[in-house]
Amino acid sequence: MNPEKDFSPLTPSIVRALNDKLYEKRKVAALEIEKLVREFVAQNSTAQIKHVILILSQEFALSQHPHSRKGGLIGLAACSIALGKDSGLYLKELIEPVLTCFNDADSRLRYYACEALYNIVKVARGSVLPHFNVLFDGLSKLAADPDPNVKSGSELLDRLLKDIVTESNKFDLISFIPLLRERIYSNNQYARQFIISWILVLESVPDINLLDYLPEILDGLFQILGDNSKEIRKMCEVALGEFLKEIKKNPSSVKFAEMANILVIHCQASDDLIQLTAMCWMREFIQLAGRVMLPYSSGILTAVLPCLSYDDRKKRILAVANVCNQSLMKLVIPEDDEVADEGKPGLASLPTDTDQEESLSKQEGVSGGCLDTSGDSNFSSTSVTLNLDGIVQVLDCHLHDAGAGMMTRIAVLKWLYHLYIKTPRKMFRHTDSLFPILLKTLSDESDEVSADAALSPTVSLRVHFPQPLQVCAKGSMECSPTTPTMNSYFYKFMINLLKRFSSERKLLETRGAFIIRQLCLLLNAENIFHSMADILLREEDLKFASTMVHTLNTILLTSSELFQLRNQLKDLKTPESRNLFCCLYRSWCHNPVTTVSLCFLTQNYKHAYDLIQKFGDLEVTVDFLIEVDKLVQLIECPIFTYLRLQLLDVKSNPFLIRALYGLLMLLPQSSAFQLLSHRLQCVPNPELMQAAAAAHSIYSKVSLIQHKRAGRMLAKRICWIIRKH
């Protein structure tokens, strides 16, 4: 510093003391400056005051010499004390050089800068709020200072500034938010702790509505929630908890839509605490905002669906994700199907069966947990459009994902089922793309997945095609049979299903019966058997056709789901039942034994006997004998109770007995042979049955003359006849 330079109104002694390396001398100089400035205040000499501050700033605080900088800092603090309430007029000039010293390499000097600023702020109080951003910026840097003394000094200043903000109602939150948004992404632990502490303070001030600006800082808060420090994570958790309480209190003022995608991102976090917290927020958002969240459904499902397959290690996340999934599903309503998408063909002419929809909805198995927002005036349902294409795309991706868990796949299939129920017209255009993967899902190892995989396409068929079909050209594999309640789309589904069974024989063996039974529950069983029989009639792979017919026949004869269909075929009283029998018979001829069993079911015993007579011309293989063995076992089942009772009426059912004896002659000496042989031994002798009938008639006459002698004689004659036979 140039000793010849004029520093007036500062005296040479003050200048020398400010440059001294001893703190005591610099303090004496500061007292002199305070006295001098007070005189200028009394004289109302603004120019002199500014000149003193300028000298202390430029020549001392910003000097190259460290002791001069220390003198400048204590001198500026002295000026502020002397100015008192008038310090607010000079705050910019007082604060800026002090903040510059926050970046000094000397830790002692940074500490003195904290001390000087503390004194300036303490005097100015609320007047420093217009300069809050620069103060906050400087403090955020000192919060991460490696020197403990500097950090301690910054904490004192930080507490003072928080007190001022809490007491004042003039805090400019709007101008502060951009700085907060920037600083919240700091990776330094101490800086993060500093940020969270300020958010908690601002949130506690009644006059400051930080909730309006939550979308600006929510992402940063979730970033901080993943900090390695338990203390910081706890502080952040508390801050997020306070915000969530405020959201529940005032949902109408919350910007749900602006925060939805932020939650979607963090619901997919690898950190368990972040994911659980974000999922809890998502649950509340869906329940509070209702249909406002529908445009973000695809993102929400992307985050939620994988969580549904979590194990007990993440059971809390699993539980919340389940609620999110169920709540979101409840938001999709039939009205979403009424608005046709622009530029895309609608299906407005297709009728909808309301009763059918209600009955199908009972099978959804969707539990509660979703807040009904249909009557909420704060959230308009009509202004929200369901992004169905995005949802279907996400569901399709999860179905194609080989690594997706079982519960995730089940949830995806339930979603598809639900969408087909609620928005059938819009879902129809996705059916062609979904059918292949749904058919593939039928081969899933889980019974529940396979059952749910059958729901979506069958619901589509029920909802979209209640009208009669139009029959195509004969011989075309894409045409439908003449059953009036079937349709070409249904027929196409059956063709694809049989193709999959043909290409995946293991699927047919292990799950074929289960899949067909599920379809019979969901659709018309008669249509299913009619269409499959019609398709198999043109099947070129005769071995597959025989196997498939055998599978269908076993299902027909043993499944409780087909009880009514069996009764219909047993009597053949209606033209429809006779038409079905003819269709089945033509296809059942792929397998001789199943054809005989169909004749037994429909009580065509003479034809069954004629067929068995022809078996002598066939090559009797082990597989053939196994099928005969299984047929014998079926005859002993409850389904054929009526057939076994008809054996009592030998006179009326001679061909039934002959057919059974024919089967007996086909069998080798096996357990099935013994079983059928024992059954046939129970068939009564025709002559004995005739004698018993005669005896019954005679006994009736005896009852009329039992008190007469002739009656006694006749009774003796009857006893003799019976003994003779």
From TrEMBL:
Location in the cell reads:
Endosome membrane; Microsome membrane
Question: Which GO BP annotation is one of this protein's?
Answer: phosphatidylinositol biosynthetic process
Gene3D superfamilies, per this entry? Leucine-rich Repeat Variant (1.25.10.10)
Arranged from A to Z, the UniProt key words for this protein are: Endoplasmic reticulum, Endosome, Membrane, Microsome, Repeat
Which intervals hold domain Vacuolar protein 14 C-terminal Fig4-binding?
505-683
Alphabetical list of InterPro entries matching this protein:
ARM-like, ARM-type_fold, Vac14, VAC14_Fig4p-bd
GO CC annotations, alphabetized: endosome membrane; PAS complex
Which residue ranges are recorded for the region named Disordered?
A: 340-368
Q: What does this protein do?
A: Scaffold protein component of the PI(3,5)P2 regulatory complex which regulates both the synthesis and turnover of phosphatidylinositol 3,5-bisphosphate (PtdIns(3,5)P2). Pentamerizes into a star-shaped structure and nucleates the assembly of the complex. The pentamer binds a single copy each of PIKFYVE and FIG4 and coordinates both PIKfyve kinase activity and FIG4 phosphatase activity, being required to maintain normal levels of phosphatidylinositol 3-phosphate (PtdIns(3)P) and phosphatidylinositol 5-phosphate (PtdIns(5)P).
Query: How does this polypeptide assemble, per the annotation?
Result: Forms pentamers. Component of the PI(3,5)P2 regulatory complex/PAS complex, at least composed of PIKFYVE, FIG4 and VAC14. VAC14 nucleates the assembly of the complex and serves as a scaffold by pentamerizing into a star-shaped structure, which can bind a single copy each of PIKFYVE and FIG4 and coordinates their activities. Interacts with NOS1.
Record's family? Answer: Belongs to the VAC14 family.
This chain's protein is named Protein VAC14 homolog
Species of the source = Anolis carolinensis
* Higher taxonomy: Eukaryota, Metazoa, Chordata, Craniata, Vertebrata
